[in-house]
Amino acid sequence: MADADRRYDLYGPDFKRDPYPTFAAMRRDDPIYQQPGLDGTTPIWFVTRYADVEAMLRDPRFVRDAARALPPEKLPPSTPLDDLLIRNMLGVDGGDHRRLRDLVSQGFTPRRVADLRPRVEAIAGMLLEPLVARGEADLIDAFAYPLPTIVILEMLGVPADDHGRFRAWANALLEPAMTPEKLAEAKRLLTEFTDYLRALFAERRAQPRDDLVSALITAEQAGDRLSENELFSTMVLLIVAGHETTVNLIANAVLALSERPDLRDALAADPSALPRAIEEFLRYDGSVERALNRFAAEDVEWGGHLIRRGEPVIFILSSANRDEARFERPDDLDPERAPNPHLAFGKGVHYCLGAPLARLEAEVALRALLTRLPNLRLSVPHETLRYRFLPGFRALEALPVRWDVRG
What we know:
Blueprint: H1 13-17, H2 20-29, E1 32-36, E2 43-47, H3 50-57, E3 62-63, H4 80-86, H5 94-106, H6 110-114, H7 117-128, E4 136-138, H8 139-144, H9 146-156, H10 166-174, H11 180-206, H12 212-218, H13 228-241, H14 244-258, H15 261-269, H16 274-285, E5 294-296, E6 300-302, E7 305-307, E8 312-315, H17 317-320, H18 355-372, E9 377-378, E10 400-402
Parallel strand pairs: 2-8
Antiparallel strand pairs: 1-2, 3-5, 4-10, 5-8, 6-7, 9-10
Helix pairs in contact: 4-13, 7-9, 7-18, 10-11, 14-16, 14-18, 16-18
């Protein structure tokens, strides 16, 4: 297969600006369809209907670890750096996944998340204080990015003076390196990142603190602990998943509200309606467009197709969440939608462990924005907005907004 064999553009700027017509066409004509992936050659199955995505996410025949689906000679080559970055609970299955998830959960409990609310509110207030009188800003740079980033790095115990270094490291982890030069730069940044983490781990082993890094280092269940590679990979997962998804959730919600001033004003007047509205923001234009690649661990017949062992499969969550067979008026933003069984956080054993934190941060962020920045709205034409080249995410490059400055 090659680029020319692609029936559907799932990567270009026009698609990123509005992927939903493409997803609607795929659900109608090719709900389970194989075409080349990002590299232009590897054939990947793309699944777009809700019923299929929901069921396949829970089906143990579709695995995250390629080693469970491919013979050793067909596995892609890995480096010591790869091993440090991908050995987390999202990259493994079965007993390995349960062990890692249980260990991480001990340092990421619901009570720990609930206790964060006052601190999240304080950070939101701190970020908004210098903005209120300005009347305009790039909401991502000034608020949506720093809020969840500060929260997760404080949870982990990263010193405040080092927070600014993590943006480049996270981008190196997320953005596909499509040229030799970008690949070399990504490798340099990720080596720098792992060196930083190694020093942080050594410091916490010598002097544990009341933070998530110390909790992960000391987490124990039935005499088991995180290995060094698992510790590195888990930190990567928590840092990236702990901020990138919430950055985009906040930004995408504000963008949607800028097109629905009636809803924006209603939520500003009654912030108690925000929790249900956030569920609809997650469904309508969620942060995560696609679940991470799975592999068929055996030959699977599904929907009239034979998915052979070892073939990669991608479940498109954003398409499933707009499936007319599951949701009435799926292209309408309806904050009263109930029930709302969206798949924004996945399904099954890999359901997002950080979902409660994302919901908390989004609620606090939107409450603060809507109550302190009156008439918050987009300040540029919608068609000029650009999305980052992150195939798995709905991530704006910037979100220029303005609001009314009270006299």
